[in-house]
């Protein structure tokens, strides 16, 4: 199995992104809340896996991070350091 090589670049060498995209590193430190504004946790790492990308979160007591898929993410605002997620029923 081959994995993609990691590249290291200085921040000022990264190309600008379209308005609706972000670099994974920018998510670290973002607060995560549900659609009502209730806190769910904070992004502490982003890790690429073979099938999907996962975020490591510090989470509220009694829960784990919701899946990091478009169906459960409502918005990502890197400038405001905020992610809004809609956890699945029963989460």
Which structural class matches the secondary elements?
A: mainly beta
Distance linking N and C termini: 34 Å
Helix content: under 10%
How many β strands by DSSP?
5
Q: What profile does the largest beta sheet have?
A: 5 strands, mixed
> Whole-number radius of gyration?
14 Å
What does this protein structure show overall?
This protein starts with 30 loop residues before the first strand and ends in a 6-residue tail after the last strand. Strands 3-2-1-5-4 form a five-stranded mixed sheet, with no helix packed on it. It is built from no helices and five strands. The chain has 91 residues and is mainly β.
Short description:
The chain is an all-beta fold and 91 residues long. 0% of the residues lie in helices and 32% in strands.
Question: Notable features of this structure?
Answer:
single chain, 91 residues, mainly beta, 5 strands, globular
Helix and strand topology:
Elements: E1 31-33, E2 39-48, E3 53-59, E4 73-77, E5 82-85
Parallel strand pairs: 1-5
Antiparallel strand pairs: 1-2, 2-3, 4-5
